[in-house]
Design goal:
- It is built from one helix and four strands, in the order E-H-E-E-E.
- A four-stranded mixed β-sheet has the order 1-4-3-2, covered by helices on one side.
- It is 12% helix and 27% strand.
- It is α+β, with helices and mostly antiparallel strands.
- The radius of gyration is 19 Å and the shape is globular.
- It has one helix spanning 17-27, and strands at 10-13, 32-38, 50-57, 60-66.
- It has a domain at 10-66: Signal recognition particle alu RNA binding heterodimer, srp9/1, CATH 3.30.720.100.
Length: 95
């Protein structure tokens, strides 16, 4: 993750995280797949099913999770920041 992107949105899907990621990868011309974690048969996923998939959209890393429909997810969230860091002034006092 680049120095500018210290937060990665973590999006919860019932069972279609891979399809959602493929959709975003097809829509954004500079998007790319970064990583995926496939199940080894432990937990709620069958062997080979995507558990998480990480993609990058216009420089922003995003993680998609195949959650479970029986567990409710949090409401949608949006992140936006156009702030420029402020310069700290250091005062040196003369004595």
């Amino acid at each position: 993750m680049s120095a500018m992107n210290k937060l990665a949105p973590f999006l919860w899907f019932d069972d279609n995280a891979e399809e959602a990621a493929e959709f975003y990868l097809s829509v954004f011309p500079h998007a790319r797949r970064l990583d995926e974690l496939r199940s080894k048969g432990v937990g709620p996923w069958p062997v080979g099913k995507i558990a998480t998939i990480t993609i990058e959209l216009e420089g922003q890393e995003m993680v998609f999770l195949n959650g479970a429909p029986r567990i409710s997810s949090t409401p949608p969230s949006r992140f936006s920041s156009a702030a420029t860091p402020r310069k700290r002034s250091t005062a040196t006092g003369a004595s």
